[in-house]
Specification:
By secondary structure, the chain is of the alpha/beta class. The structure holds 5'-O-[(S)-ethoxy(hydroxy)phosphoryl]adenosine. Residues 92-481 form the AMP-dependent synthetase/ligase domain.
């Protein structure tokens, strides 16, 4: 069913396995019997996992699925998420344990203990409350990786405010649509951020985004780069002026297990980003459980580092909520991996003796490109578990990661999940699973996933199809903000009769029944682990005055997984003038960056005279992908005009 690239064929021929060492298995958090325990009574299993948390009021029902697909987990229970991530560790006598080793890009550092974190979060909560914010209000956060980003999220959680973190690289337009959709009352940002040694403005972009934004009453600005910023009197407040003077005491209130914790926007198959809604008790339960079992995390012993940005779900679940609930000591790094040199990550691992490292395949492939000589210069012997997330990891990168970063012995956990699933769903368990390079392998204990065909019938071993989740799980999304119909339609309509959640990914079972993820089957691209929809980029392109029509595909890219390739038909007057055409392409790439953000900039834009369409007018992206990946163009019989592909190919070959 899914169209396979040569890289995927390679992946599926992989047959090596790497069983855990006896030494690792003997101390592992996960044990093989968890699978059977969860299968015997799934709800009892999750109730046991929920005991990891402090509940102010215990739940009366583990799962209420009576209003499916809207789940209620731990119904009737009450808890405070921030109390669970911060205060209780102080109450348990761990106030002096470092929670965050923060490393700034320019080399400045800051350590925050749990006692420090409690103080900062309490002050920030008092500050937000002083602005009149009450539980249920929304707060947008656009901040780079500074401690205040985490403090701000936890302060919201403490007050029952719903945060919406917007990735720092998103454009003013993208920020604005998210602020409007969530009707955020407050926006938290910084003056600027350090990127590759330079200070880039943040506040100025936020100001541009918020022009005329009616819901926003206050903008709180963290001082970081000391860049001069535009200022709106009466609306703008400095974080340090507002927060520093607040009381360090704040009593957390317990909220319902289903209280909205955050909204996080992600690309769907249409242009409008979806506000994925996550709630409190079930989310935190699965975040903590997976962080404990999948990373084998041992509080007080391990030093953990997840390299994601808090603007993505990985940062939410595996920097903020799961790890802090488990009393982690973690590294948080502000900058890029090659500033000021390509060994920056290894230098940090050596310095802080990082033992668990969680990153993305695109970065691993970049490290491969830079050469193994770079990590070889550092002492990485503290590393004992390695993780991967965001896209399928090719076996070459997996082996390189294990050999060069994990000293040929650290288990690698290839974790499959989504913004929508909230936490890891499919992954090997370190100490239990004999790992296979390139396969996420098996649903975690408590989770059920299947590969099915068009008719929703599970495929057999060796068969491929669609990945579905056939049982509800605690950290599942509770909906799309303000759009219940879109929620049902997007995730639950494809296999409505069976009640399966359709993930949008293609997958395959190998002969052992292990799952191999094969990438998206919808119009969502995966560029460096970031989800971008083809429609979103197409709308950005056609919003430019020179473009008549546009079609976008994700083409296989050796480093970023996929690269964005756009085919555009320019408007008559521009198309006739070749020099103008060149200029137009540069302008178009910049236009997309401005509309969505630099991550959505097409790798390549090809000007074409026509686009291949079916008789019903649907663009055949499959054929364009063939062109973008330099392959022989496939079957054209369903095209309305079968000569179109010749026209496209000949135009490109002659360099036009
Ligand atoms: C892809 C990121 C293969 C997949 C946590 C999914 C993966 C999308 C893996 C979600 C993996 C994520 N192997 N593919 N280990 N992890 N994906 O919402 O296509 O940014 O649907 O969440 O990334 O991306 P999202």
């Amino acid at each position: 069913m899914t169209e396979q690239s040569p890289a995927l064929d390679n992946l599926l021929n992989e047959s090596r396995t790497f069983p855990p060492s006896d030494e690792f298995a003997a101390r592992a958090n996960a044990t093989a019997d968890l699978y059977a325990e969860a299968d015997a009574d799934r709800e009892a299993f999750w109730a046991k996992q929920a005991e990891r948390l402090h509940w102010e009021t215990k739940w009366t029902q583990v799962l209420d699925w009576s209003d499916a697909p809207f789940a209620k987990w731990f119904a009737g229970g009450k808890l405070n998420v921030a109390y669970n991530c911060v205060d209780r560790h102080v109450d348990d006598g761990h106030g002096d344990q470092v929670a965050i080793h923060w490393v700034g890009e320019p080399g400045d550092t800051r350590d925050l203990t749990y006692a420090d974190l409690k103080r900062e979060v309490s002050k920030a909560a008092n500050a937000l409350a002083s602005l009149g914010l009450v539980a249920g209000d929304r707060v947008a956060i656009q901040l780079q990786m500074v401690p205040e980003a985490i403090v701000a999220m936890l302060a919201c959680a403490r007050l029952g405010l719903t945060h919406s973190v917007v990735f720092g690289g998103f454009s003013p337009t993208a920020l604005r649509s998210r602020v409007d959709d969530a009707q955020a009352r407050v926006v938290i940002t910084s003056d600027g951020q350090f990127r590759r040694g330079k200070a880039a403005p943040m506040k100025a972009n936020v100001d541009e985004a918020l022009e005329g934004a009616e819901s926003v009453e206050k903008v709180i600005v963290v001082r970081r780069t000391e860049t001069e910023v535009p200022w709106t009197e009466g609306r703008d407040l400095w974080w340090h002026e507002l927060v520093d003077s607040q009381s360090e005491e704040h009593t957390p209130e317990a909220f319902d297990a289903e209280h909205p914790l955050y909204i996080l926007y992600t690309s769907g198959t249409t242009g409008k980003p979806k506000g994925i809604l996550h709630t409190s008790g079930g989310y935190l339960t699965q975040a903590a459980y997976t962080h404990h079992t999948v990373f084998d995390h041992k509080p007080g012993e391990d030093v953990y580092w997840c390299t994601a940005d808090i603007g993505w779900v990985t940062g939410h679940t595996y920097i903020v909520y799961g790890p802090l609930a488990n009393r982690v000591t973690q590294v948080v790094y502000e900058g890029t991996p090659n500033t000021p040199h390509e060994g920056r990550h290894w230098e940090i691992i050596q310095q802080y003796k990082v033992s668990i490292y969680y990153t993305a395949p695109t970065l691993i492939r970049t490290f491969m490109k830079w050469g193994k000589e770079i990590p070889e210069k550092y002492d990485l012997s503290s590393l004992r578990v390695l993780g991967s997330v965001g896209e399928p990891i090719n076996p070459e990168a997996w082996i390189w990661y294990r050999e060069n970063i994990g000293a040929g012995k650290a288990p690698i956990v290839d974790t499959w999940w989504q913004t929508e699933t909230g936490s890891i769903m499919i992954s090997p368990l370190p100490g239990v699973t004999a790992a296979k390079p390139g396969s996420a392998q098996r649903a975690l204990p408590g989770i059920s996933a299947k590969v099915v065909d068009d008719q929703a019938t599970e495929v057999g071993r060796g068969g491929g199809g669609y990945l579905v989740l056939d049982q509800p799980w605690p950290s599942m999304l509770r909906g799309i903000w303000g759009d219940n119909d879109r929620y049902r339609e997007t995730y639950w309509s494809r296999f409505a009769d069976q009640g399966f959640y359709f993930a949008g990914d293609g997958a395959k079972y190998d002969d052992d029944g292990d799952i191999w993820l094969l990438g998206r089957v919808d119009d969502v691209m995966n560029v460096s682990g970031h989800r971008i929809s083809t429609t979103e980029v197409e709308s950005a392109l056609v919003s430019h005055p020179t473009v008549a029509e546009a079609a976008v595909v994700g083409a296989t890219d050796p480093t970023t997984g996929q690269g964005i390739v756009a085919f555009v038909i320019l408007r008559g007057n521009v198309a006739q003038d070749e020099a103008k055409g060149e200029e137009a392409i540069t302008a178009l790439r910049n236009h997309v960056a401005k509309e969505i953000g630099p991550i959505a900039k097409p790798r390549q834009i090809m000007v074409v005279p026509e686009l291949p369409k079916t008789r019903s007018g649907k663009i055949m992206r499959r054929l364009l992908r063939d062109v973008a990946e330099n392959r022989q163009v496939g079957d054209v019989t369903t095209l309305a005009d079968s000569s179109v592909m010749d026209l496209i190919s000949s135009g490109l070959n002659s360099g036009k």
